[in-house]
Amino acid sequence: MSGGPVGIIGGTGLGRLPEFAAAERRALTSRFGEPSGEVLLGTLAGREVAFLARHGVPHRIAPHRVNYRANIDALRQLGVRQIVAVNAVGGIADWAGPGAIAVVEQMVDYTHGRLSSFSDVEGEAVEHIDFTDPCTPALRQVLLEAAVGAGLAVHDGGVIAVTQGPRLESRAEIVRLQRDGCDLVGMTSLPEAALAREAGIDYATLAVVANWAAGRGPDVITMAEIEATLHEAMQRVVTLLRAALPGIE
Ligand code: HPA
User: For the chain, which terminus, N or C, has the lower number of CB atoms within 10 Å?
Assistant: First the structure.
């Protein structure tokens, strides 16, 4: 269903959208608290967009402290029906080297203690949403076709492990995640995707590999390496978003 703006949730490395001139900034609040910051409303590639920086601007909210419920509720209040999220991740699978971009298909939750459902509110009916496919297949398809059209290499699929953070993983934890069938590891796709599903909002995520996960590459992962990789890769992400937006109805 179309109508509202397309929600774009920017993660680490995408605190703002280049060439996106926000016509309006909305400081929203909800009964779930405050979102990560103002939502920027405007037009990108001819499509109305609502942009929210997941970690705030400047980047200040750690993954385990993001108010995911307030963020999704703020976008819902603006009439958002589709969200394209962007997540910086570590790469586990051989295909997931630094700079790779994946249109993720599946998620495994290793987080704990996060407020992960709108149904946490006492007195409200509990809803057991179907989460067989955490990412909306039709929205994934739009992103994949846009990538082909724009001549951008993206990986179709991938299982993302969502860890609690903010620390990176140990070598043994990555071995375990690999054994569990995970290709990528990030910290923010959940509960975000689940809350979007509860809110009836289509959700897809672009995972941008910032570094080899622990033990899969050089011995120590540095923030400098992560930032340099993300800086380059996010330019491709923005190209992909611009290509995809007109096709999101
Ligand atoms: N692990 C978890 N989250 C991440 C990583 C990682 O190695 N890199 C960027 N986000």
Answer: N
- For a mutational test of ligand 1's pocket, the pick from 164, 169, 190, 208, i.e. the residue with the most ligand atoms closer than 8 A to its C-beta, is 169
Pairing of strands 184-186, 159-162: parallel
141: left (phi over 0), alpha (psi -120 to 50) or beta: alpha
- Residue identifier of the C-alpha nearest atom 3 of ligand 1: 186
List the domain range (segments joined by +) for residue 217: 6-247
H/E run at residue 208: strand 202-212
66, part of any domain? yes
In a domain, 239, yes or no: yes
The per-residue pLDDT for range 178-232, each reduced to its tens digit, is 999 999 999 999 999 999 999 999 999 999 999 999 999 987 888 898 999 999 9
Per the domain annotation, does 1 fall within a domain?
Answer: no
Q: How many domains does the chain have?
A: 1
